[in-house]
Amino acid sequence: MSSRFPERRTAARFLALACAVCAPAGAAAQATTALRVCADPDNPPYSQRDESGFENRIARLLADELRRPLEYTWLRDRRGFVRKTVGAGLCDVVIGVPVGFQALQTTAPYYRSAFFFVNREGGADLRSFTDARLPTLRIGVQLIGIDPGTSPVGYALARHGATQQVAGYTLAGAEHPPAQRMVEDVAAGHLDSALVWGPQAGYFAARSKVPLQLVRAEAPPDMAALPFEFSIAVGVRPGETALRRAIDDMLVRRRADIDAVLATYGVARTDATRMEAAP
Predict the structure, then answer these.
(1) Rounded CA separation 154/182 (Å)
(2) pTM for the whole thing?
(3) Which range marks the domain in which residue 246 is found?
(4) 273: in domain
(5) Is residue 256 part of a domain?
(6) Given this model, what pLDDT does residue 17 score?
(7) Does the N-terminal or the C-terminal CB of the chain have fewer CB atoms within 10 Å?
(8) Number of domains in the chain
């Protein structure tokens, strides 16, 4: 999702995205010092340079609540993102990291999501990794590196016999994100189904001219210990406890506004306040 996992934020960022925070000391400084957010300039639906992504809108809510100007450091969400942004002291916060991401302090989660099968209405209607048709279906999955099995859903496909027909979608050399290309290929009939991280699945499926359905991809019984669902939070530099607490307070105060943003972008959620994404 870029590959945001969780894709790569889904494997290393399942993830591996991150940033940090250099909170100013003192209330007066906080009122005037910019809140510096690190983000990908072309990673719909999360973030874009024109600030039209849903994480851009959440960042704006956060900056307004903290009464700080909002500034961005833009860098493609690729290997070395954290080192080149937070590690270089260029930004303070990253919106949208898995709870417990070790490189950062993370706030309380503001949504939870999972992977979804994206199917055409009237098509294969794939709903499970234990479906006997799995080895014969054309299924799209995002590649993390060069190995389809490096994400939980890719591993589940490989473990359950879907190898020859699996189509891997990479970040490299493509105009559009892998999730967008997968959803478009399902709509066009090039794929029977695709496995897509929830925020991207809901966003791109809602924009399809061909009716699509989302079905949550539950971990198969033999892989129950592997997480297929993640809680998403805001990441802050380790040690900046005051800033993390301030963001936690904001997430409570603006809960309804954040839920409205996520709903507007069709984010497929698995927490209690989700909009139902699948029948």
Answers:
(1) 14
(2) 0.84
(3) 8-111+228-264
(4) no
(5) yes
(6) 38
(7) C
(8) 2
